[in-house]
Design a protein that fits this description.
Blueprint (H helix, E strand, L loop, with lengths): L1 H14 L11 H20 L2 H19 L1
Helix pairs in contact: 1-2, 2-3
Length: 68
């Protein structure tokens, strides 16, 4: 479970940097998103995919309001 959690968190973070619409790679941003991926993964493990998706959505709204 721990290995799956770490691997999915790394892929979660990498996905935000991939492709032409991805953000430029910065180590600190990658690590921050990987830690967020661990949190979302733990929410998924202990609750459900829906809870993890809602948590991600609420975080995105929070970030949008801070930047706005």
């Amino acid at each position: 479970v721990a290995l799956a959690l770490l691997a999915s968190a790394a892929l979660f973070s990498a996905a935000h940097h991939a492709g032409p619409l991805g953000e430029p790679f910065q180590t600190s941003v990658f690590v921050y998103r990987a830690l967020a991926g661990v949190v979302f993964g733990l929410i998924f493990y202990f609750r459900s995919l829906a809870h993890a998706a809602y948590a991600h959505f609420l975080y995105d709204v929070y970030v949008l309001l801070l930047r706005g």
